[in-house]
Amino acid sequence: MSYNKAPSITAETINPKVKIISYEPCGQIARHAERLQQEIEENPGSLPFQEITYCNLGNPQALGQRPITFFREVLSLCDNPTLLDKDETPSLYSTCAIKRARMIMDSLPSKNTGGYTSSRGIKSLRQAVADGISARDGFPSDPDDIFLTDGASAAVNLMMQILIRSSEDAILCPLPEYPIYSASIILHGGTMVMSITNQEEIVEFCRKEGLVILADEVYQDNVYAENKKFNSFKKVARSLDYDENDLSIVSFHSSSMGLYGESGRRGGYMEISGFGTDVKEQIYKVASVTICPNIAGQILTSLVMDPPKLGDESFESFQAEKEKIHSSFWKRAKVCNLHFIRIDVASLDTGTKNTLEKAFQSMEGISCNKIEGALYFFPRLHLPSRAIKTAKAEGVSPDIFYAHRLLDATGIAVVPGSGFQQASGTTHIRCAILPDEEKIEAMIPRLRAFHEAFMKEFRR
Amino acid sequence: MSYNKAPSITAETINPKVKIISYEPCGQIARHAERLQQEIEENPGSLPFQEITYCNLGNPQALGQRPITFFREVLSLCDNPTLLDKDETPSLYSTCAIKRARMIMDSLPSKNTGGYTSSRGIKSLRQAVADGISARDGFPSDPDDIFLTDGASAAVNLMMQILIRSSEDAILCPLPEYPIYSASIILHGGTMVMSITNQEEIVEFCRKEGLVILADEVYQDNVYAENKKFNSFKKVARSLDYDENDLSIVSFHSSSMGLYGESGRRGGYMEISGFGTDVKEQIYKVASVTICPNIAGQILTSLVMDPPKLGDESFESFQAEKEKIHSSFWKRAKVCNLHFIRIDVASLDTGTKNTLEKAFQSMEGISCNKIEGALYFFPRLHLPSRAIKTAKAEGVSPDIFYAHRLLDATGIAVVPGSGFQQASGTTHIRCAILPDEEKIEAMIPRLRAFHEAFMKEFRR
């Protein structure tokens, strides 16, 4: 007979920092959505909608975005390089992809993609990333300042591990934030403080105070506004004539976001400029505790930063695929702007304009900033006091209450704004603009109908 | 003019825990080896050897081991699934791989491999892993207890993050250890204590004391001893009639080690049995801070645990490739055992025996346990006191001194035993048995010649 003793590890006895953190994009609404998804699969027709619309996470390919052909061809060839010598291959793969895959394979110390690499990533791939940064910024980038990483999240965690000594160390962070920052700061024992957000001000302030800039630049390709463009923090600093003796900057980028949305591949890099060799060695050491980033992600990151160029055989098809994604995001941003804020009708093309102008009507109790970049809108909800009271009675905050109701009624999964540390006393939801134009136009009336019913129910 | 202020982050101002840790398999000897490698490339003939023999890291494919064809075919098809519908594909890929890739693609919620997945991994792949564990142990495994991870290292870090609250929490660890344990325990603020090593004793002790077993089972396929086989901790516990109400066990496995050596792919899993739903939810939450493990690694892990079976078209070729790797490791273990310990000559096949018996001569000042599993030998060095004094004068420990000398003289990179917390007052090196039989037979005389010269130099 065994002597039963309950295991000693419970949610009460684990690391209390773990208990405190929250990561709402994959949090309670996301998990409730997964349960509903299972319900739909097991009992079709049992819910008032046929599918879950996952607008909680910036996860383009989960909502039907196609990967870039060139990227996937190169990955596929590097996985199975015996193809490079087969007669059938040129009929199945573009010349460009074959050439690039061969170049990558030749540059690997062991000529295969199964070995551990250097903890900061394969040198030739870091070189490709550095070249891409130099071309983007017009200022040089050194491959020895590049660390390839398993997505930007791993890089953020690594830097927090390096920088935070105790709760006396504070990280200034603009709010609303992306929750990896608060989670990582809490897990590493630091303190988060709200910061200023103007790029040049930040550079001046950090230079004067000797602070490190951690620049989350994963949406550098996602700009949907005329006359606006991405400027990296390093470029801003260099343009102000500050070099690496003046200022330490870490830039995070990833193959998950941007236009390509290769999220599940966990590719990314950080560029660390303005750090001494001693600190770089410590970063290298911490990176080596997990030995190296995954190779497919390393390759993908090099392709993102060094895609086919004018003159390359694949350039036109690559450019067309990229443009299609970009213009689709641009259109979706416009549709959402149109519905959630009272502007921008004039800038629509005539067809869309006519259709939508008729339908257009800004929603009661919603105000929203214009979407000019990234993948999300973040409308503020001005809810009736009875809704707020009901939420309180149910023991949840109003944004969680609203997001739950929205999901149960429509199958649309969003993230409660409190997951991003919305301003105290305000109520927001975050919704990714990932469904394609057609679907987003179908989704918004459902969202509107829910919202109107919700407002009506609680206004009484 | 810019006002120059040195950046405030130096090795003195970073997290002191980072400064303390060491990770010697990628540490000073490894980095010195990389510098020598560069020297060889830039000035061929400038060193007394033509290549670096990397025996510092368990990294089989970096030393020429070929990947399993079936695994790479499946990965390649999942990267570029348009191939699945091409007429040429059946001539390029095995039917088995095509079938498996199609099954995996169909099981993905978004039917593609570019999206974020659940933070614990794709359900169908977790099911494959659980099925593999059930078949291996003869006890059931629940896919909801499986977390797919970016290699075993990521899983170890995750569990340390969950379990360690402060330096009052101790992790019992057998010594010599693999240094991710000490590094991860230090980074998470815990305390490491040396433990007992008998499997049944550990189970009984942990059950009585209510302790969690963290079982590093990444070498479960690497056993090179007659009449010995791998038994998982879970199997041992279940065989003693302890169920998940009695004991919490976490088992780590990886696609990096085992026989397949897909190290750079960062695939792995942990099976957590005997934890409540509340703890599992906290583990899920911490996993979600980096969103999800990389998809190629997830797929690979499912293939490792659910490879082609008897009756499958690819079974024989898969089995042959696997057997070839296994028997090669077995032979290498024998060669090393023969040279480093005075036993086992009888068990060699006649050819090898005749060649080696002539050469056989155990080395002065070296004693070594027999290699019966994993990828390494860990000889103890009994060095002359003058060598120890010289090391001290140079400010390094004798093992580091010896490993540096070995690398500079022969190009063989090993890891100083202090990187694994060798017993105090002893001197060891760790050497991976990765060069193939031919190369390892060529390497050992070089190692021997170096060792004899070293002993002679310091005995005088």
From TrEMBL, chains A, B:
Its cofactor is pyridoxal 5'-phosphate. InterPro entries: ALAT1/2-like, Aminotransferase_I/II_large, PyrdxlP-dep_Trfase, PyrdxlP-dep_Trfase_major, PyrdxlP-dep_Trfase_small. Pfam families: Aminotran_1_2 (PF00155). Residues 93-195, 200-443 form the Aminotransferase class I/classII large domain. Pathway: Photosynthesis; C4 acid pathway. The keyword Transferase applies. Signal peptide: none annotated. Keywords: Aminotransferase, Pyridoxal phosphate, Transferase. It comes from the Eukaryota. GO terms for molecular function: L-alanine:2-oxoglutarate aminotransferase activity; pyridoxal phosphate binding. Homodimer. Belongs to the class-I pyridoxal-phosphate-dependent aminotransferase family. Alanine aminotransferase subfamily. This is Aminotransferase class I/classII large domain-containing protein. It comes from Eleusine coracana subsp. coracana. The lineage of its organism: Eukaryota, Viridiplantae, Streptophyta, Embryophyta, Tracheophyta. The gene is gb22541.
